[in-house]
Write a structure and sequence with these properties.
The complex is a heterodimer of chains A (274) and B (309). Chain A is mainly alpha-helical and 274 residues long. Chain A is built from 13 helices and no strands. The radius of gyration of chain A is 21 Å and the shape is elongated. Among the domains of chain B are: 144 residues, Rossmann fold; 59 residues, 2-Layer Sandwich (Alpha-Beta Plaits), CATH 3.30.70. Chain B is built from eleven helices and 13 strands. The chains are: A mainly alpha (274), B alpha/beta (309).
């Protein structure tokens, strides 16, 4: 046994009491290590970006090809910025699943016990998972948004509809789109902690986001705009349109969903045997 | 040092762990022995703060587990070796554990080397055999060089080399003055590894004694003897208070006197011995003797008898 002679051995006795800040940064570092060392995270990211950009460009191409059949009012409604980010709805489901699996993957294998033995502060672990999922998703979503936007504007240029990054509201839309994805990743962590099964939590997430788009038709119009899927669409708009919240309100609504799910998961995790 | 005081865990109406008190002391391997379902894993989970006790308490070095800062540097546990997300490499699995407790990253390579997994450090854990997973679990337990180590059924899935290796590892950890708490239902393993035993059955501690003491107390050693004057010897031994059981092959199994005493009895009565063979009881016999009589009455008596140890 070489263990006793290693410097790590003396740490418990000699280390000065740690500030809680150190515990927080260790939890963040541990969860960051987990998310980046799982190959499936990276496969998921690539899939999300490819599918989202693909869907965005398909919607842009459809608008461009139908431009000549549109009346003046329909033409007025086209928002070249948000249209070039139409795929965010798909990205939300796939990137949200990264948040879900950050926690259900551990419950389904039993590794959650290793996690809670290493880090007994369970709420801190959950919060760290949420923070890390949000931080991981943000640059990915931003990259996808920028690529979708740039290519989308090239297509819109055929009808001289294109806008540029310097156009008022465009940068905010690109950023808000990424923030929305981060918040949905946090929602995923919350749902994962509540439901604890990958299939169940992923389905719940998909229903909340995409299901709202179709089932929402049966809701009063005033409620519909608060559904997470609709709020995600509203977050990236530049033109104000009826039936959609203002972008900043939409982000706040998504933040409330994420906070509620995370708080509920936090209560459940802290009071249950692992 | 692990101390449990009136530790109890109920699941609905089922009592998994029933008012258990014990101390696991440093410097020796303490075996936690009991059949499957006796409450071993539940007790270990409560030690680690994973399950909350219904009542009572359990402290590690005087603190509840949840209050230990950087717990992996103080206590480590090998629970279920298969309970691991398979997509990560062995080294990356240890890396997040190290990061979570502020352990130097180079320690990862050290412990992988100690358990003999250096060659597969970069391989996905999902491709590992149970034995490799077990070694990885041990590497994870040793990562923070903890003073207290819990092993739950550590030899499951290990080959004979691996079993010998982990047995020596546990003994050397104890020899370094660490607290080693080993749970198993395998008695041969316990007999060879544990210095001290906590025997648990149906959620209650049935015995808390050194391994030798437990065997001596709970299973009688016997002597097989055969004499030319078999009947005379049986009478003489019975007069000395020994229990004599006649076997179909003509020999007798004597309990209550050791081989030297039997020889003395025979010599005094001028009896010629043909065979005199001592048989020391095994842990297995002791365990079955104890648990066979595990009606509430007998269990209570035996617990009372061994608790002073």
């Amino acid at each position: 046994m070489t263990a006793t002679t290693s410097p790590a051995a003396t740490a418990p006795a000699t280390a000065a009491p740690l500030a809680p800040a150190a515990t927080v940064s260790r939890a963040l570092k541990a969860e960051w290590t987990k998310i980046r060392t799982l190959p499936s995270t990276w496969r998921t990211v690539v899939m999300a970006v490819v599918l989202a950009i693909g869907m965005s460009l398909a919607v842009v191409a459809t608008d461009v090809s139908q431009w000549h059949t549109m009346n003046a009012q329909q033409r007025q409604l086209i928002d070249p910025t948000s249209t070039s980010m139409s795929g965010l709805i798909i990205a939300a489901v796939i990137l949200g699943a990264i948040g879900v699996r950050a926690i259900t993957g551990e419950y389904s294998t039993g590794m959650i016990r290793s996690t809670f033995t290493a880090m007994p502060a369970r709420r801190l672990v959950l919060t760290a998972k949420a923070a890390v999922a949000a931080a991981f998703v943000f640059p990915v979503a931003l990259l996808g948004n920028v690529v979708g936007f740039e290519v989308g504007q090239r297509l819109f240029a055929a009808k001289h509809l294109q806008v540029t990054l310097s156009h008022p509201g465009v940068l905010q839309a690109l950023l808000f789109g990424a923030v929305a994805m981060s918040l949905i990743a946090v929602l995923g962590v919350g749902l994962g902690g509540l439901i604890r099964h990958t299939a169940g939590a992923t389905t719940a997430l998909a229903l909340l986001i995409v299901g709202g788009l179709t089932l929402g038709q049966f809701l009063p119009a005033a409620w519909r705009e608060y559904l997470p899927g609709i709020a995600t669409q509203a977050a990236v708009t530049v033109h104000r349109s009826a039936g959609l919240l203002r972008p900043d309100t939409a982000i706040a609504v998504l933040a409330v969903y994420a906070a509620i799910a995370l708080a509920a998961a936090s209560i459940r995790i802290a009071h249950r045997d692992a | 040092m692990i101390e449990a005081q009136h530790l109890t865990k109920r699941y609905g109406r089922t009592v998994a762990v029933d008012d258990v008190s014990f101390a696991v002391r440093p410097g020796r391997v303490t075996g936690f022995l009991g059949p499957n379902g006796a409450g071993k894993s539940t007790t270990m989970r409560m030690v680690l703060g994973l399950d909350a006790p219904s009542s009572g308490s359990v402290l590690v070095d005087g603190k509840p587990y949840g209050q230990i800062r950087d717990p992996l540097r103080a206590v480590a546990a090998l629970l279920d070796a298969k309970a691991i997300v398979g997509g990560r490499s062995a080294a990356n699995h240890l890396s997040w554990l190290a990061a979570s407790n502020g352990i130097a990253p180079r320690r990862v390579a050290e412990v992988l080397d100690m358990v003999g997994l250096s060659d597969v450090a970069g391989k996905r854990v999902g491709t590992f055999s149970l034995g490799m997973n077990q070694r990885l679990g041990i590497a994870a337990a040793l990562l923070g060089d903890p003073q207290t180590v819990l092993f739950d059924e550590p030899i499951n899935g290990l080959d004979p080399d691996g079993i010998l290796w982990i047995r020596n590892l546990m003994k050397s950890l104890a020899a370094q003055g660490r607290t080693v708490f080993l749970s198993s239902h395998l008695m041969s393993e316990m007999a060879q590894t544990a210095d001290h035993l906590l025997v648990i059955g149906r959620g209650r501690i049935l015995a808390d004694a050194s391994t030798d003491e437990f065997i001596n107390r709970n299973a009688a050693s016997s002597v097989r003897v055969r004499a030319v004057q078999q009947a005379d010897l049986a009478d003489a031994l019975a007069r000395r208070g020994a229990a004599v059981k006649r076997c179909p092959d003509g020999s007798m199994v004597v309990t209550g006197l050791d081989a030297a005493a039997i020889g003395g009895v025979a010599s005094a009565a001028d009896i010629t011995l043909v065979e005199l063979a001592a048989h020391s009881a095994s842990l297995e016999e002791a365990f079955f003797d104890l648990t066979r009589d595990e009606t509430d009455y007998h269990a209570g008596q035996l617990t009372g008898a061994t608790q002073g140890a």
